[in-house]
């Protein structure tokens, strides 16, 4: 009986060890799913905010707010929303922006009337600019902070927005 108990215990230890080894491989990589604030974004005026949201299976949205100097009107907050797709393989993030829409409602009427006829061109140029930087090498500092090294050598930081 004692021998049977030792054999069962040895089998149990081996089963537990095997389960731990298998489960170690089960730990998933940190997820991009959710919303992130982007700091040090290239080509953005100081004080700008960029919020990126990644959703399953491959949907990506960006909300951008930036202060634009409008001469005599002073600084005006311009907002833009972009949408597209992404692919993340655990190291490389590849993005494709499909649309950009500017919100000029905070721009003084005189300037807004001048800008509205050009908004389509502005949106196309912004989309093209986003798509120049299609791939980034991501490093998770922790589950809520990511460093992104871009193909142009610039580095940005993404910080998860807590719900």
Care to describe what's here?
This protein is α+β, with helices and mostly antiparallel strands. It contains three helices and eight strands. It has helices spanning 2-24, 109-115, 119-132; strands at 34-39, 49-55, 59-69, 75-88, 92-103, 135-142, 145-150, 155-160. Strands 1-2-3-4-5-6-7-8 form an eight-stranded antiparallel barrel. It is elongated and about 55 Å long.
**What about the largest sheet?**
8 strands, antiparallel, barrel
The number of strands is 8
H/I helix tally: 3
| Biggest sheet: strand arrangement | 1-2-3-4-5-6-7-8
Structural class: alpha+beta
Give the end-to-end Cα distance, rounded to a whole number of Å: 56 Å
What is the overall silhouette? elongated
Secondary-structure element series: HEEEEEHHEEE
Content of β-strand: 35-45%
Helicity level: 25-40%
Q: Determine Rg (CA atoms, Å).
A: 24 Å
Task: Pick out the low-confidence regions.
Answer: 9-13, 15-26
Overall pLDDT confidence: 83
Q: Key features?
A:
eight-stranded antiparallel barrel; alpha+beta; 163 residues
